[in-house]
Amino acid sequence: MMRLGLLLPWVTPSHRRYLPPIGGSILQSIYSCCFSSKSRYRLNRVTADMETQNKLMEKARRPVNSRLCRVSGSMTEIMEIKAENPTYLVLFIPGNPGVVSFYNDFLESLYEFLDGNASIIAVGQISHTSKDWESGRLFSFQEQIDHKIDFIRQELESVKVPIVLVGHSIGSYICLNILRKFSEKVVYCVGLYPFLTLNQQSKQQSLIGKLAASSVLSATVSFLIASLRLLPMSAARLLVSNSIGASWSDTAVQATCTHLRQYHTMRNVLFMAKSEFTELAVEPDWDFMRENQSKLAFLFGIDDHWGPLQLFEEISKQAPGTSLSIEREGHTHGYCCTVAGSEWVAQHVATLIKNRFSQLQ
Question: Which is nearest to 65 in space by CA: 50, 52, 77?
Fold first, then answer.
């Protein structure tokens, strides 16, 4: 005979005394349970409690949705989580590589830590995509900035709630440019491990700069990496997991295999880096940062050549009203590649945003 527990999974041990022995008719058992007034009250209460819990879980944890959006003629990868009644909108700008799927765990965690009160949209860099939508065209750093500004004008012009900007690495610099254009819409700007100016003491940046500056070297490196597409996906995932991604999440490993093995993506990553190094050869616009210091927050890492602690110190001198933090938990510049890093940074960002809105009230 079929077990009654399979039909009534919501019956707890406390309800079993209201059930007749499992020897009679299943229909009779269900009828006796459901139409006993005392048990009906108890079951209704249990059902109501479970519905309430499910609603809270649904509000707190919601998966990211991915879609394609054409912005100013360029196909763009978007990841978003829509809140039912958002009080503000978080616009996230990735670093370089600007593959938004690297940030899947971070975005979901951020939505959860914001208690489902904010809609979240992440906008990828042009042609840092799994498919070559732009037929091999290369996009400069300025074109990537303009692309994000065009996205806001196209997709967020009618948004009535305040906008919070969150950027990672070079995405922090892009966020500052967005703040400059939309100062009335944007109420807060958070930079994570920010890359705002060249670090002349970094040998790694020097090597990357030389590689990116040479079109021959860039094309050669991109071709070598793209040749890994000859491997089946399972073999590629194994290779990444046993090399650069030994501690990475499945999300990061998958994003690497689907996007960074593409020739057009690597060429655009390096071409964007080339123009970044030219743009960031000067100091940040301290006057602008001082004027907007109440809207700015930055999170730095202990050993991060992209956002070194000397930049932390300089910002504290030039714009002392800026909210500055140092992450000391052992996460890296590529925090989004691990679940632990994604969750810690998401919780930190959520705390900053909540504090900001409590100040505005």
Answer: 77
User: In angstroms, rounded to a whole number, what is the distance separating the alpha carbons of residues 352 and 143?
Assistant: 30
Quote the DSSP letter at residue 20.
Answer: P
Strand 74-81 relative to strand 296-301: parallel, antiparallel, unpaired? unpaired
pTM: 0.83
The model's confidence at residue 90, banded by pLDDT at 50, 70 and 90, is very high
Residue 342 corresponds to which amino acid? S
Write the DSSP assignment of 226-261 as a string of letters. Answer: HGGGGS-HHHHHHHHHTTTTTT--HHHHHHIIIIIT
Give, as one character, the DSSP assignment of residue 208. Answer: H
Q: How far apart are CA 57 and CA 314, in angstroms?
A: 42
Report the distance separating Cα 138 and Cα 135, nearest Å.
9
What pLDDT does 168 receive?
98
For residues 296 and 248, give the distance between their C-alpha atoms in angstroms, rounded to a whole number: 30
What per-residue confidence (pLDDT) applies to 51? Answer: 57
Compute the average pLDDT of residues 125-134. 97
SS3 content of the chain, % helix, strand, coil (to 5): 55, 15, 35
Facing residues of 166 across strands? 92, 190
Instruction: Give the pairing type, strands 88-93 and 118-123.
Output: parallel
pLDDT at 76: 98
Which is nearest to 109 in space by CA: 171, 66, 62? Answer: 62
Phi-psi region of 320 (alpha: psi -120 to 50; beta: other; left: phi over 0): alpha
Which amino acid is located at 269 in the chain? V
Query: How far is residue 257 from each of residues 140, 208, 275, 340, measured CA to CA in Å?
Result: 24, 22, 26, 21
Nearest to 142 by CA among 261, 276, 265, 32: 276
Confidence of residue 62 (pLDDT cuts 50, 70, 90): confident
Residue pair 164/87 in contact by the 8 Å Cβ criterion: no
Cα 125 from Cα 169, distance rounded (Å): 13
